[in-house]
């Protein structure tokens, strides 16, 4: 077992600076793939006070207006008022060039676009076969954003973070110990009102969905006592800085690279999706209660140089049967994963917030009966 006492995971709202950056990068990827399915994209975004910087490599026949894509995302996320010190009118610098020829050679031969290791994880803790702490953290972040966007809590402003601590007994979730929320809000609303509203409209319904509850005194909102202006003007954001949030909330191993802004030849992304798919299907079939699948690739080579599986003593079948399942269930070559999940489509912007795993709309989350 991983834990015997407590475990904490965090998530962030769509307007968090790092997630603003992730969403801009993945929006660019989607535009490229929408016009040219063979586009090769690796785009990094930096957002800070009144400034956006785009850098990276794109090789594509697509006509991409990088600046307009960034402005559209920033506006969609609610940064339209000058009080934020960062808006869709902020200056944007673009430093994007073509993929290096040395990398392109390997990808041209159906090889991996980079080297590295990736991990996929699944557990029986939740219906999504994800660890409970990260699922609750994501659902709370989504619910905060929903309340702001639908104006049920119209005084909320873009940005926000969530954190959940779960008490484990005998290796199983036994209760929610604490919830920590941070969200900026207009100056004319008291912190007491914000806390009460978030408790009733966000915390209570999300925890009830998983049959847990929390007393108001166990909730902390805006720990310093005040938060009015969030976003990139308060905290610089960059693509790929929320890799723990994007994965399993620290509950399982983390691979060497981030996901957003990368086309599927980059195995940091596609390999992690393939590993999760295998792990989830093993657990769904009842072959183990917890599974962690590891893959590793070499740049330019089509197949993984490592495939591992760890069931943490929960397996219902022997190791040989597990190994056969991995080999037979999914072709873990780069092109095998791309084809299995149809990854050359513009499907990536929704992945850039609330996690890449545990969401039924993504093809790597499907279970085969």
Q: Would you summarize the structure shown here?
A:
The chain is an alpha+beta fold and 369 residues long. It has helices at residues 17-35, 66-76, 101-108, 132-149, 191-209, 243-246, 267-284, 319-329, 334-341, and strands at 6-12, 40-48, 51-59, 92-97, 116-123, 161-169, 172-182, 219-221, 237-238, 290-297, 306-310.
Description:
The protein has helices at 17-35, 66-76, 101-108, 132-149, 191-209, 243-246, 267-284, 319-329, 334-341, and strands at residues 6-12, 40-48, 51-59, 92-97, 116-123, 161-169, 172-182, 219-221, 237-238, 290-297, 306-310. The protein is of the alpha+beta class. It is flat, with a radius of gyration of 21 Å.
Give the averaged pLDDT, no decimals. 93
Largest sheet: 4 strands, mixed
**Unreliable stretches covering 5 or more consecutive residues:** none
**Shape verdict:** flat
Number of helices: 9
Q: β content, as a range?
A: 15-25%
Instruction: Sketch the topology as an H/E string, one letter per element.
Output: EHEEHEHEHEEHEEHHEEHH
SS content category: alpha+beta
Overall number of strands: 11
How are the strands of the biggest sheet laid out side by side?
1-6-7-8
Radius of gyration: 21 Å
Helix content class: 25-40%
Distance between the termini: 27 Å
């Amino acid at each position: 077992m991983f834990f015997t006492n407590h475990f904490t995971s965090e998530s962030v709202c769509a307007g968090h600076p790092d997630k603003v950056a992730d969403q801009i990068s993945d929006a660019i990827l989607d535009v490229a793939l929408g016009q040219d399915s063979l586009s090769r994209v690796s785009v990094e975004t930096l957002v800070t006070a009144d400034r956006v910087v785009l850098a990276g490599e794109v090789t594509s026949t697509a006509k991409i207006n990088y600046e307009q894509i960034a402005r559209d995302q920033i506006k969609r996320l609610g940064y339209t008022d000058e009080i934020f010190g960062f808006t869709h009118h902020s200056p944007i610098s673009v430093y994007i060039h073509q993929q290096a020829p040395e990398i392109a050679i390997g990808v041209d031969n159906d090889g991996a676009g980079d080297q590295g290791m990736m991990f996929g994880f699944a557990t029986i803790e939740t219906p999504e076969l994800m660890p409970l702490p990260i699922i609750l953290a994501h659902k709370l972040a989504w619910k905060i954003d929903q309340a702001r966007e639908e104006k049920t809590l119209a005084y909320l402003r873009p940005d926000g973070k969530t954190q959940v601590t779960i008490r484990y007994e005998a290796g199983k979730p036994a209760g929610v110990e604490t919830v920590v929320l941070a969200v900026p809000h207009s100056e004319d609303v008291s912190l007491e009102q914000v806390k009460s509203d978030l408790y009733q409209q966000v915390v209570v319904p999300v925890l009830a969905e998983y049959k847990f509850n929390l007393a108001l005194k166990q909730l902390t909102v805006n720990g310093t006592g005040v938060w009015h202006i969030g976003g990139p003007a308060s905290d610089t954001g960059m693509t790929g800085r929320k890799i723990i949030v994007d994965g399993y909330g620290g509950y399982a191993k983390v691979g060497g690279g981030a996901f957003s802004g990368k086309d599927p030849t980059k195995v940091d992304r596609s390999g992690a999706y393939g590993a999760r798919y295998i792990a989830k299907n093993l657990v769904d079939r009842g072959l183990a209660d917890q599974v962690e699948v590891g893959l590793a690739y070499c740049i330019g080579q089509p197949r993984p140089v490592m495939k591992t599986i760890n069931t943490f003593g929960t397996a219902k079948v022997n190791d040989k049967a597990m190994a056969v399942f991995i080999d037979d269930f999914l072709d873990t070559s780069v092109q095998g994963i791309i084809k299995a999940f149809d990854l050359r489509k513009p499907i990536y912007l929704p992945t850039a917030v609330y996690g890449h795993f545990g969401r039924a709309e993504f093809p790597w989350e499907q279970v085969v009966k």
